Amino acid sequence: MGQKALTWFLGAPVALIGGAILLGMVGVIGTQDGIVDTYTDIGEGASLRTNVDEECAASMIDLHGQAAWDLVIKQTAEIEASGGAQESRKLSEEEIATAVTTKVQNAPVVGTGIATLVIILTLILTTARGVMPSGDIKPIAIGLVGTDLMLMVDILSLSFILSSTATFVLLAVPAAIALYGCRIGVQRLAKNELIRVVFPPLVLIVAVLGSILGGITNPTPAAALGAAGAIMLAAYRKL
Q: What's the domain count of the chain?
């Protein structure tokens, strides 16, 4: 019993979070968006300006050394020979469309926001299983199926190029399945005194940091969420 609980308490979270970090490092999980720069990069230029008067050039030689100045003169000559440094320009509609298509094709398979949400829900389910390893596993299994379906929808629907409404509709059923399992899981967690004390603040921390890292919101609204959550937790403990 103890070994089984330890597997769900420690083994599953370590495997889940470690796997997510590894997938993020190889580009499977990451930020999904179709936003591209509409201007080109500025072309290469010399490391120092050479179109200066003799007094300024002498000061630059004293500051950087004759060798560095000679190198800059050589760089400037090579750049001018190749046509000069290119200035930034606005991309055409065709170039922007090509850049968007390229970014979509090379985008991560799973978005950071969905991955963060799935990790939170899965941790609730696995921790609930660890609290009551001999309990009925069906609700936990149903919840895990829901989280898997959420990932599959994100992989297959390319949700980052869909509207927020379309993404919500596609994720509604898998999220409802996952939340059903989480509801049973939370009921089990509530029966454990240690979990009842530690788990709510932990969920709040993960929610605040996850909303920032997942690109769902910026730090200011996330701070407001954390403050409101802390007040609600304090009120709950007082009651």
A: 2
- Under a CB-based contact definition with an 8 Å cutoff, are residues 142 and 180 in contact? yes
* CA–CA gap between residue 111 and residue 171 (Å, rounded): 13
**8-state DSSP, 158:** T
Residue 45 has pLDDT above 90, yes or no: no
pLDDT per residue over 92-143, tens digit each?
Answer: 778 777 877 777 777 788 888 888 889 889 988 988 888 887 788 899 999 9
Range of the domain at 104: 2-36+100-191
Instruction: Report yes or no on 134 lying in a domain.
Output: yes
Alpha helix ranges (H) inside the chain: 2-6, 12-25, 54-64, 66-81, 93-105, 112-131, 138-157, 164-189, 193-213, 219-238
* Domain co-membership, 26 together with 112: yes
